[in-house]
Amino acid sequence: MKILIKNGRVINPADGLDKVMDILTEGDRVKEVSENINAEADRVIDAKGLWIMPGFIDLHVHLREPGFEYKETIATGSRAAAAGGYTTICCMPNTKPVTDCVEIVKYIKEKAQKEAVVNVLPVGAITRGQEGTELADIEGMAEAGICAVSEDGKSVMNAELLKEAMLIAKRLNIPVLSHCEDKTLVKGGCMNEGKHCENLGLNGISNDSEDVIVGRDIILAQSTGARLHLCHMSTKGSIQLLKEAHLRGVKVTGEITPHHFTLSDEAVDGKDTNTKMNPPLRSKDDVEAMRKAFKDGIAEVIATDHAPHSEEEKNKDYKSAPFGIVGSETAFALSNSVLVEEGYLSPLALAEKMSLNPARILGIEKGDISAGNIADIAIVDPERVYKIDSSKFFSKGKNTPFDSYEVKGSVEYTIAGGKIVFEKGKINDN
């Protein structure tokens, strides 16, 4: 199939291109990027006023399958991703059974091949059952096709075990995605520690619970030479540690989620559990630090930590409800509204954080829509203003604090491997 995209603003950070151009795709590849392409095509898209960007890559999603299909499936999660402009997503291993062996990796890959509309890359667990006592078969999973290892949802509290895993990951040339939280410091907390938490009568989660593990994992990455990626950073302290690690030449990168650079703990009222996530919404100072981390080039990636839960689960009291919100279908709109509109990032830098940098961290040939590369493309309208409507999500999860939140920026088309998988609010399953 040939697709001709006309008159759009092509934003491609791999070669610094930011100009109104046309793009022609043929099969699964970009054939030509130039002005005024006149060619026969099976489909012509007029992208006047729209941005044409590399398809977004999400290093951090929870697809829940196998084991928790009532929350999300590979099929529904991939459709939510497509609706958000994502063409590649990395699914975390806290499934049931845990993704800690070759068999589960193969199951996810085969299921995704049949049912997903975007590329799904499994992430393998660091320890068996995510129990933190014995390493999983990292080498076997790498051969089966994992893109990284992580204990997401938990930290590997045993430093010796994590160091051994890092050495294996370095040898296999895969990154270690770190959930940075010292669980001994959490003590049953359910929101950010501070005066607001005290006023609500809830137990708090301190900033140092994150900072301690960030510091430890950076030290181990420096010691082993492994490639470390820090998941869902949320504190000023962790940003400072990342900045210092960069100055020392440590192979470490960091991601921030839209909810952590958009909302502070003041959004928590102790009743709406859609404001409960891990790490928690932090102080206004921390939120500003997250935004500045992008502007200053410290944080490299925007990731969603898409974490769907059932309505029944989220309807529990604040202390009992599970952590997590969905994010695949709101990430671009929030990122454009906060980071681009408020001057923290240029459109080119936004594409870098949402596509090129994640591709480089994974070591995959994506995130670049110059001629000859895979035709993974997001076409977005940066000017459209609307209110988020969770009832229209493709995800099974509707658990978001952003329902009815006014944003600027929408995904209009998502093209994965040369196929239009999302178009103006509809999924193309054909």
Description of the molecule:
This protein has 430 residues and is an alpha/beta fold. Helices cover 30% and strands 24% of the residues. The chain is built from twelve helices and 19 strands. Strands 1, 2, 3, 4, 5, 16, 17, 18 and 19 form a nine-stranded mixed β-sheet that branches. An eight-stranded parallel β-sheet has the order 6-7-8-9-10-13-14-15. It has a two-stranded parallel sheet with strand order 11-12.
Helices and strands in order:
Blueprint: E1 2-12, E2 17-26, E3 29-34, E4 43-46, E5 51-54, E6 56-61, H1 74-83, E7 86-91, H2 102-115, E8 119-125, H3 138-144, E9 148-150, H4 159-172, E10 176-178, E11 191-192, H5 195-200, E12 204-205, H6 208-224, E13 228-230, H7 236-247, E14 252-256, H8 258-262, H9 284-295, E15 301-302, H10 311-314, H11 331-340, H12 347-362, E16 377-387, E17 406-416, E18 419-423, E19 426-427
Parallel strand pairs: 1-4, 1-5, 6-7, 7-8, 8-9, 9-10, 10-13, 11-12, 13-14, 14-15
Antiparallel strand pairs: 1-2, 2-3, 5-16, 16-17, 17-18, 18-19
